[in-house]
Write a structure and sequence with these properties.
about 575 residues, alpha+beta, Immunoglobulin-like, Oligo-1,6-glucosidase, domain 2, eight-stranded parallel β-sheet, globular, glycosidase, hydrolase, Cyclomaltodextrinase/maltogenic alpha-amylase/neopullulanase, Glyco_hydro_13_lg-like_dom
């Protein structure tokens, strides 16, 4: 047995309260190295009853290229648990793994009560809680300046005719909040139940990530009365609304930064930023010299986005009041937090407490593109934008050199990093305002586009569609991914497909979120998996091989892109089957 591969960490994603009286426990072992794993558990104060001589078999859950993960859910009559693990290898050797190490499976090592892992008490206040509604939600991301121009009277000077060209960084086309309100019927018919809006606050750019005033809607988008109407009308249709908060940095046009520019170290806002010397300055230099010509910290090397000092209590209170304001006054349902990994953890803990005091069911989503355990312990975010998870999906579907096993290794690795509560509400997306659009990445192949989105919608997590993807909008990297929504020139067949896909996701949201998962890689590029929950099982087959695949029929097909005969499916390349077994 590979002893070095055995791993467990108490009070983490390896041992946590899932529900009030239910604790979920994981153990890592080397791939295919262990025959049997069992949990040994009981109450610390009843150790004399020798419960350590009993075992509960653990099931093998997710697997990666190098590890197996064993899982079990347990309860305790006394809301506390001491536990250890029994392991048996394929040669019949037996081991006892506890808080003090790995020993032979012998009573002399098991009867030391101080050696066990512990959950000392099931504190409900410490349990990670995600909003119950999120796993049922299908999101739609809108870049407001490019979705729809509902009121040309508020267009900025120099606004271009709608969709008249591919966007450059400084272009304006006139999209606004009235344009979104005008299309709520469209979104409702599509089946959307959550709107994620890129920033709407006052800022000089088209993207609004250089905020000037967090308490006002940008006048080129409308005003706060119009935003209240948008939220109310969305809610009346069963659609939640999430706003984008840029708390890592301010725009250089903000009065706080301009006061620093004018008054230097005497400014009352001087400690609101990370300034190395006074006066503040930025000197244009070649790209190779970025970072050497600014004497204050910024987002990336963007001089008009000075970084906020969120360790300053004045900055903290300023931002926390803003976060609470949009909840109290407009009843928003979520905050998406821009550049969340560059803001200190102390601030996010304060943020978590403040916003959930205002609205306990608010969704807190961090923009983090890498492993995010530190932010997902239950006292900061509920979820992150799950780029690392969906990047594995994109690699398999878009890159012929990536096998199904490669994809599953990457996806399962990401799932193991977090508690199930987070995985159930992680924000799954394939394209966004920061990435090339999927139709462009698929090189215009709409069969491939349909296949990859179907696969993503069948995964644990809450799925998101970037505006226009559902009607065939293409686009390369930023700023090309921010093209105008092609009203009047939409792919109606693709739109109908997305309506059906969203309906499928909403119908089986519980199965897809909570169901037991079983994967099979039939061939390098043919994937089959099942999800089972409360008597319902979905069997899903995806063919990304170069030739047709003939697969047996085991249930009733409910969503397909293939040919069906009485006994078999003939699945073309980029074809798929979802059947109810």
């Amino acid at each position: 047995m590979n002893i070095a591969a055995i791993y467990h960490r108490p009070e983490s994603e390896f041992a946590y309260l899932y529900a009030k009286d239910k604790m979920r426990i994981r153990l890592q072992t080397a791939k295919e190295d262990v025959k049997t794993v069992a949990l040994i558990s009981g109450d610390h104060y009843l150790f004399n009853q020798k419960w350590y001589l009993e075992k509960e078999i653990m099931g093998k859950g997710l697997m990666t290229a190098h590890h197996d993960y064993w899982e079990i859910e347990v309860t305790s009559d006394y809301r506390r648990l001491s536990y250890a693990f029994y392991l048996e290898d394929h040669d019949g050797n037996e081991y006892f793994y506890c808080d003090q190490g790995i020993f032979p499976y012998q009573e002399e090592f098991m009867k030391l009560d101080s050696g066990y892992f512990r959950m000392p008490y099931f504190h409900e206040i410490d349990r990670f809680k995600a909003p119950e509604w999120v796993h049922k939600t299908v999101w739609y991301q809108i870049f407001p300046e490019r979705f729809n121009n509902g009121n040309p009277a508020n267009d900025p000077a120099g606004t271009l005719p709608w969709g008249s060209k591919k966007p450059d960084r400084e272009d304006f086309f006139g999209g606004d909040l009235q344009g979104i309100i005008d299309k709520l019927d469209y979104l409702e018919e599509l089946g959307i139940t959550g709107l994620y809006l890129c920033p709407i606050f006052t800022a000089p750019s088209n993207h609004k990530y250089d905020t000037v005033d967090y308490l006002e809607v940008d006048p080129h988008f409308g005003d706060k009365m119009l935003f209240k109407e948008l939220v109310d009308q969305a809610h009346s249709r069963g659609i939640r609304v999430m706003l984008d908060a840029v708390f890592n940095h301010l725009g250089a046009n903000s009065w706080q930064w301009q006061d620093v520019v004018e008054n230097g170290r005497l400014s009352k806002y001087a400690d609101w930023f990370h300034i190395h010397s006074f006066p503040v300055h930025y000197d244009p230099v070649p790209d190779s010299e970025f970072g050497k010509n600014i004497n204050y910290d910024t987002f990336s090397f963007v001089p008009n986005m000075p970084k906020l000092n969120t360790a300053n209590p004045e900055v903290q209170e300023y931002l926390l009041e803003i976060a609470a304001y949009w909840i109290k006054e407009f009843d928003i349902d979520g905050w998406r937090l821009d550049v969340a990994n560059e803001v200190d953890h102390h601030f996010w803990k304060l943020f978590h407490q403040r916003v959930l005091t205002e609205k306990p069911e608010l969704y807190i989503l961090g923009e983090i593109w890498h492993s995010s355990q530190a932010w997902l312990q239950g006292d900061e975010f509920h979820a992150v934008m799950n780029y690392a998870f969906t990047d594995s999906i994109k690699a398999f579907f878009l890159n012929q050199e990536v096998t199904g096993d490669n994809m599953l290794d990457g996806m399962n690795h990401q799932q193991i990093l977090y508690r199930d509560q987070t995985n159930e509400v992680n924000f799954n997306l394939l394209d966004s305002h920061d990435t090339a659009r999927m139709l462009t990445l698929c090189k215009g192949d709409k069969s491939l586009l349909r296949s990859i989105f179907t696969f993503m919608f069948l995964q644990k997590g809450t799925p998101c569609i970037y505006y226009g993807t559902e009607v065939g909008l293409a686009g390369g990297s930023d700023p090309d991914c921010r093209r105008c929504m092609p009203w009047g020139n939409q792919d109606q067949s693709l739109l109908a497909f997305f309506q059906q896909l969203i309906h499928l996701r909403k119908t089986y949201a519980d199965v897809l979120s909570f169901g037991q998962l079983r994967w099979t890689t039939e061939k390098d590029r043919v994937i089959t998996f099942q999800r089972s929950y409360l008597g319902k099982t979905l069997r899903c087959i995806f063919n990304e091989a170069a030739e047709e695949q003939v697969m047996s029929k085991k249930g009733d097909p409910i969503f397909t892109q293939q040919t069906i005969t009485k006994e078999e499916y003939t699945i073309a390349p980029h074809g798929f089957v979802v059947e109810l077994v």
